[in-house]
Amino acid sequence: MSAARDDHEEAAADIAAVEQANTAFYEAMERGDLDGLSDLWLPGEDLTVSCVHPGWPVLTGRGEVLRSYALIMANTEYIQFFLTDVGVAMTGDTALVTCTENILSGGPAEEGSSLGPLVGQLVVATNVFRRTPDGWKLWSHHGSPVLAETGEEEDEEPTV
Asked: Any coiled-coil ranges, and where (predicted)?
């Protein structure tokens, strides 16, 4: 087997492992599994982790980031992610995943209902992973809302 083929197979295995780590991140959110989610982030404070939730300021440090997820999980009755446009780029021990999060979420149930009102949202996300002895771990997550299109051109002159 040639060295080029070995390199290609190793790169494909790394990409698959990063895709699995990315999927595990969203699955932990869907389950409301804070311990599972915590295991997916870089441990310690060697490389300061960061997170930007849509509309939030930058959160830095493992403790602050994990507290934000605990808050979200405590206040979200239901959440499901449908990921589209997933792309993975790698260099050395760092991987960059970009995707569109098609989110369906719901708050507390209303009286007489088992689930609160569901809301759909589009968020584009960038997840940065680092290779560790324990596999690929999240270093940074940045989610930005996709603004809905109104169908009207804003710079059009109104007609009289």
From this structure: none
Q: Above 90 in pLDDT, residue 22?
A: yes
Name, in order, each residue with C-beta under 8 angstroms of 13's C-beta and a sequence gap of 6 or more.
none
24-31 long-range contacts, Cβ below 8 Å, gap at least 24?
25/127, 25/138, 25/141, 26/81, 26/83, 26/101, 29/69, 29/72, 29/73, 29/79, 29/81, 30/79, 30/80, 30/81
Pick left, alpha or beta for residue 3 (phi over 0 → left; psi -120 to 50 → alpha; otherwise beta). alpha
CA atoms within 13 A on the CB side of 10: 10
- The domains of the chain, with CATH numbers, are 3-145 (3.10.450.50)
